[in-house]
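Hi, here's the filled form for the chain we discussed.

Project: internal
Contact: R.S.
Residues: 476
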Amino acid sequence: MNRTVCQRIRGRRRWAALPGAVVVCALVAGTGVAQPDPAAKPGTSFTKVDHTEALADVIKRMSAAKPGIMKAQLDLLGLRYDLAERPAPGAKMFRGKAVQGGVRVRLGEGMTWAKLSAMTPAEIRERGVFPAGFMPLPHPNHPEGGMLFPQFEIDELNAQEGRDLTRFDLEFDLPDRFLPEFPPAIFLTTRPDLGDVSRGKLVTSANFFELFDGVLNPKQIDGVRLLVTPFAQQQFNMTTDRRSVHASRGVSCFDCHANGHTNGSTHLVGDIRPQEFRHRIDTPSLRGVNVQRLFGSQRALKTVEDFTEFEQRAAYFDGDPVIATKKGLNILDRGTQVHPMAEFQEILDFPPAPKLNVFGKLDQSLATESELRGEALFIGKAQCAACHTPPYYTDNLMHNLRTERFFEPRMINGRMASADGPIKTFTLRGIKDSPPYLHDGRLLTLDDTVEFFNLVLGLRLTEQEKKDLVAFMLCL
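And the returned structure, exactly as it came back:
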């Protein structure tokens, strides 16, 4: 048994203590890599129900551990990425926030992207040179997990509702510059003539009626009401087993899916055990949910109604129905609550894409040469369209990239980095407004995303081809 975190510095691995990250592992001779011990008994699938430690003691203990935990996570991010403010020239989200540009994933000493792309997966694995920024990204405190919100969301909810989503044990880790603009715009398929109907506001229980009265029908308005209504959740509830100082009314759907989009909030999937194998999840946008057919962290749900109901029954409480009963399970009625919520979600539209025609392809009279070359690459050499098919740039399927070909399994800040498994093909419409990328947010920019797929799929793209692909995706 070791309490360890693996970090790569100047081409070497360093093993350092991390409080609370208990790792069952065996060191492979000569590799310095932590691997799961198949003989070790896994922990229980169930959460401890009887909470015997006084809340005041929990707050004191976890608050004291917080600086060290956050330092370990921020050190990891600094080792993986270039986190500097560096906007992509001329690239803006709908309401004007700069889109960060450039490849931010750091390479090991002496390595280049050209050298790396010339190597086979086996060679990359054997030499241990798979970029750290391409590895699965752990939760800021993976052994603890739970919903975690950017500070701008916390501040705005506090100002509007007096509801505080601050955790005494953790803070959000990714810099705001790599998150979606806030508050995001809202577009409706039913009223495209209105453009952004948010009026620059975050939709909450304090203002939803004034924003949507006269725009939505009564059923849809009630759906919005429920989407901004807080319900008890694992970390935010009225028991003493919580991670907020004061008893909490809980969280709402739109606390993560801000304005029906996303604010980059993070969590852990509820359907994997043990804890170290659970995946971090980056909140996906609800824009264009009407064209999607796979939902949930393992994509087992086939309608947005199923997903809306599932969130309350399982996801809010880490997939543990016993704990849900203890903390405040709120089972939604399918006919009078789930359907109104889903009906509103189904009319959330993508942001305008003025350079696309009705088939989702570039209008050649409006696009630049670089964008047109990027589109040709997207459909051809880069094979992006094999999964991200126009006009909505998704095939509504799951695909396994088998990234485990490139690295030995290892523990990273309490997260066992191994196989990602099948990943949903997310729509790329409006993609510049939805950083970070991949299911766990490990890719900070579109440039990082192109480099990732260039390596994982063995595309051998040139530097100009990579730039052209990014230019095209900025049009979507």
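Let me know if anything looks off before we file it.
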